[in-house]
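Homework-ish question, so no full write-ups if that breaks the rules, but can someone show me the predicted structure for this set?
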Amino acid sequence: MESRGTRLALATWAALVTAFLWVPLLLILVYAFNESNIQSWPIPGFTTRWFRAAWHDQEVRDALWLSVRAGLIATGAALVLGSAAAFAIARFRFFGRESVSFLLVLPIALPGIITGMALNSFFVFNHMSLSLWTIVIGHATFCVVIVYNNVLARLRRSSPSLLEASADLGADGWQTFRFVVWPILSTALVAGGLLAFALSFDEVVVTYFTAGAQNTLPLLILGYIRLGQRLPEVNAIAFAVIVLTVVPVALAQRLMRDTGVLRRGAANVTEAVESSQITAV
Amino acid sequence: MARGADTPAVRLLGIRRAYGNVVAIAGIDLDIAEGEFFTLLGPSGSGKTTTLRVIAGFERPDAGRVELQGVDVTRTAPSERAVNTVFQDYALFPHMTVLENVEYGLRVKGVPRRERRERALEVLERVRLPGLGSRKPTQLSGGQRQRVALARAIVNGPPVLLLDEPLGALDLKLRQEMQVFLKELQRELGITFVYVTHDQEEALTMSDRLAVFNEGRIEQVGAPAEVYEHPRSEFVAGFVGVSNVLERGGRRFTIRPEKIHMVEEEATLPSGHEIEAGRVRDVVYVGMVTRYVVELDAGGELAVVVQNLETSSQEALEARGKRVRLGWRPEHTFEITPHKEESEQ
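A: Not a homework solution, just the prediction itself:
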């Protein structure tokens, strides 16, 4: 057991780190309601007009819509490809299995700028014009990994004899899927999907190289800030984005926790660590 | 279908199964009678679990035939076979409650909700788990999970129940309780149990008959007393009990450690005993009995078990290094045929 002093020091340190992470975000949340368009402390007054302005801004609306579409399509593709890959890796032994696993996870470790650059040259080389679809492809590179990791973790900690037990008790393939496989996997898929969407939604680097002339919401914000334009509006958008991102991620964490799967104590920690590592990257 | 009284519940004919170069089952013939508690005993990797999986249908044999109640099921899917399995890791569905787990087999067969609920509750009572139906498997202890797995299998009323090392994960006391319970249950249900274990004591206490597996083959099939007292091979002698093999005058034989009398060097032994002298090499005091290992002057060594009727642990342990005489009755020795593979070569 650590002493009182150590515990106090640790608690203080933890509080400081948390503050370091959250104070800038809170500042933006506060500035989103700033009456003046100059950022000064304390804010002179309270208003919601920047939210209205952002909401009625056609540029912002287009960017938001593009981000949502790209996020949804990339997530959809990731759900199909990621879970298929996880099944193959978890259930079958085949030549090159380890390498495939490595290649799948690599894009997330690779700096986004490399992925973006490589994709960009690939598209240009093949005379593909940059569009929604090139953004989707770019985002899919890391969304697939997230779904893959979540589903793989779930498969690894659910015993393969569950399927045998189901068959043994008289279930056909479809019944086994409906009553056993799907309920066990669904929360991992939903959690993976939510995380993938959240990542896609605020991705800048890869998008920058694959978006062409159009702006996703993060690119739009980047542009505004670089030019020093419409800063209060940006704060309002940031507020919305934070809320939109926090909710699915929190939900995803909850879903991964609440499923009563055997050996759950240990497994949850690894899964949570895995997901948080992914989010950190 | 024609089903005589002596149609075996399970019949295996010339079963072989290999994984690449690894031979799991190297040719097995086996009849398991209706209503029998039959144990597949062997060390890990001996093919006993694979054999069970062949009966369940999870493994398809490379060669041979599987019959259940006289019907060839070699190519029948597990879901269509009239057997149910208790898995080693229980394989309870983690997202279902205990009751839902037990109901599962009835549910997929389309038994109406009320009837299956009734039957599930009845079976839960039978395995002494009343009132736990709404729990999730993670909220149960190992022993309770084991009973749920049992209930989930027997609720379907299978004529044959397969049990794959079901007590392996339980502690000793619980395991002994469950051994008694399983035996009772089998008698009550009157169905065939095919039981896989590597624990020879478990096999001896529970089975009507047992088959000793070694390297993908069956070395011996018989009632526990028969296999214990008359092991047919050196492997069986060693695996079922303690290997006490001696070679005297070209004759190889075993003798069970509790059949040997041990006295001090000058003392006499009853007449009619074969007598040899030796020195105590090792002493293990195990509560009710003491185990001695005696090095014989004529070569070889024997394990001797003596009940601690009047011996204290102190006296027992002091016997180390002492000269002793061993005696046994010739009819308690059992001749061993050379190992199968040696005879084949």
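Now go work out the reasoning yourself. Hint: The longest helix of chain A spans residues 58-91.
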